[in-house]
Every structure is written in structure tokens, then in C-alpha cells.
Design a protein that fits this description.
Elements lengths: L2 E11 L14 E11 L4 E10 L5 E6 L7 E6 L2 E5 L6 E8 L2 E9 L4 E2 L5 E5 L2 E19 L2 E16 L7 E11 L4 E9 L9 E5 L5 E4 L4 E10 L5 E12 L2 E9 L5 E3 L3 E10 L5 E9 L4
Antiparallel strand pairs: 1-2, 2-3, 4-5, 5-6, 6-7, 7-8, 8-11, 9-11, 10-11, 11-12, 13-14, 13-22, 14-15, 15-16, 17-18, 18-19, 19-21, 20-21, 21-22
């Protein structure tokens, strides 16, 4: 079968207060999202975990006790992302929430790429994030849904981003795409939707070549045009098919991106759409897959 798996960890600082100084003191909250899209069954299931920072509940740290190579360990209420060596080149994800569970090993096929200006991704005149990606990892492991276990292989995309705030004044949401093409290239691109429908000058993207070389995309280098909307039961129209026109090192390209399933909403602490998409070329041929994230629709 064809599956899409989303695993996301968020960390948010709490308001400053007097320090207690012990290991049980909490200054962070951690949020985890897990989703599985079962394309053959036409089903998207998701779950959420929320916890304050706590040695036994949630946190992210580098573990080095008695080990020759320090490794990453991020945990939210039993869900874990763990490094298998230095850096992010080899990772393990383990998470379960009825009716699904995943146990996946990830190994980087391409090196880390820096988004924005050498890793600084401006989102407004006074707002930015530090942002890097591993645009292609090989995945193998086990996925269970509704009591049925599946051995799975595939590819993954990993993003790491930390920012000053979510949106600037006048911005309503964003449309983000992380696409892996069958020829070994990748595309990350997003647009920030503004009040009044004007194009935001901070829209940006990144084209990753087969050899890992990157080309930054500025606002004028690409356009995103919705082709089809899906309306949910609350009356919200979600753009689930798009045309992305862009300039690449080999010339102009036009990609059609369409949801594998229309309903891949994440109805969590905040509602957004994030899910598996198919990429087609100008002739309508399938040339890749990826993920799309849509926020701020109401």
C-alpha cells in the first residue's frame, strides 16, 4: 500500500518566572503530532500529545552519558525521535496512538541544506527563523494501523526551524510544499498569504539539485496558483491542488501538485491541513511525491 507519515515536534517557551533550579522546574511545553495517510483505504488518522517539559514526560537534549558519540533524544509523552550517532544522519522514530503506531529508521541520502540566507529565513521586516532541512532520507521500518502491520520503505523529509514568532502583522497563514522528484531533485517553497490578497515579498523557496547543490528562490522566481478546492463540513475551502511555476537551473518548470486524499486536516490544538501529495509534470505524468501544509484558512 501507499502511506504517508507525518511526525512533528513543537517546543514553546513559557512566560518567564522565578527559577526553582531543580530538574522538575518547567519552562517549556512540548507538542507532538502524528498522522498516517492510508491512500488505498482513503483514510487519514492523526493524534496529538501535549506535555510540559519534565525529565520523565517531555524534552529534547543531547545524551552523552557513558557514550563515545553524543546523540539526540527528543521525547513527548512516550513518542520519541532518537539519533543513532552524531548529528541527524541516522534517526529512529517511535510513536503510537490508537489505531496506529510507527517504528521507523531514517538515514540521510543528502546532506543538510540551509534555507533562506545561509540558514536565516526572513518572514517579515522584524520576524525570521533559523531553518535547515534534510531534503531526502531513506526510510525503513514498521507501520501498524487498525491492527494490521505493514513493513514499509520509502523516503522522508526532515525540517528543523526555530523562530521569533509565527506570523507578522497582516499575514494570515501560509502554503508550504516540500517535494521530492523522481529525478533526485527537491523543492521547498512557501508563500505567506496577506490580508487583501497581495503577494508577500518574503515568500521564498529552495531548489536542491541531484548533487545537493542549492539555488535560492525569491518571490519573483515562482508562483503558486490553486487549481481545485475541497470544502469541509465547517464550510472551509482548502486548496488541495496547485500549479507551481518556477525557474530552475535548467530552465522554467511547471509542476502540478495534488493531494493524495482531499481530507488530510489536522484537527488538533490548532486546525491546519498537512498531508501527502503527488507531483505531475507539464504532460500530466507522475514525477514525484511530497507534503503540503496549509494554515490560516477559515
Amino acid at each position: 500500500g501507499r502511506f504517508g507519515v507525518q511526525f512533528t515536534l513543537f517546543r514553546q517557551a513559557l512566560a518567564p518566572r522565578a527559577l526553582v533550579g531543580g530538574p522538575w522546574d518547567a519552562h517549556q511545553i512540548y507538542l507532538g503530532h502524528l498522522a498516517v495517510t492510508d491512500v488505498a483505504a482513503g483514510r487519514h488518522v492523526h493524534a496529538e500529545r501535549l506535555s510540559r517539559g519534565h525529565p520523565r514526560l517531555a524534552g529534547a537534549r543531547v545524551v552523552s552519558s557513558g557514550e563515545t558519540v553524543p546523540r539526540l533524544l527528543a521525547v513527548v509523552d512516550g513518542w520519541r525521535l532518537e539519533g543513532q550517532g552524531a548529528g541527524l544522519e541516522r534517526l529512529v522514530i517511535e510513536a503510537a496512538a490508537a489505531p496506529m503506531s510507527v517504528a521507523l529508521s531514517l538515514e540521510a541520502v543528502k546532506p543538510i541544506v540551509l534555507q533562506g540566507d545561509r540558514g536565516l529565513s526572513a518572514k517579515g521586516p522584524n520576524q525570521a527563523s533559523y531553518y535547515y532541512s534534510l531534503p531526502r532520507l531513506a526510510v525503513a521500518g514498521r507501520l501498524e494501523i487498525d491492527g494490521r502491520s505493514h513493513e514499509v520503505t520509502g523516503t522522508a523529509w526532515l525540517d528543523r526551524e526555530w523562530s521569533t514568532s509565527v506570523l507578522s502583522q497582516g499575514q494570515r497563514g501560509w502554503d508550504w510544499f516540500g517535494l521530492q522528484l523522481d529525478d533526485g531533485t527537491e523543492l521547498m517553497a512557501f508563500q505567506l498569504r496577506r490580508d487583501g490578497g497581495l503577494r508577500d515579498p518574503y515568500d521564498q523557496g529552495l531548489w536542491v539539485g541531484v548533487d545537493g547543490d542549492t539555488v535560492q528562490l525569491r518571490t519573483q522566481d515562482f508562483t503558486m496558483t490553486p487549481l481545485r478546492h475541497w470544502r469541509d463540513e465547517q464550510g472551509v475551502d482548502w486548496p488541495v491542488a496547485w500549479r507551481i511555476s518556477l525557474m530552475t537551473p535548467s530552465g522554467p518548470r511547471e509542476l502540478t501538485v495534488e493531494a493524495a486524499l482531499d481530507d488530510q486536516r489536522m484537527e488538533t490544538l490548532f486546525t491546519y491541513w498537512e498531508g501527502l501529495v503527488t507531483v505531475r509534470d507539464e504532460a500530466g505524468e507522475d514525477i514525484g511525491t511530497g507534503y503540503m501544509e496549509l494554515t490560516g484558512y477559515e
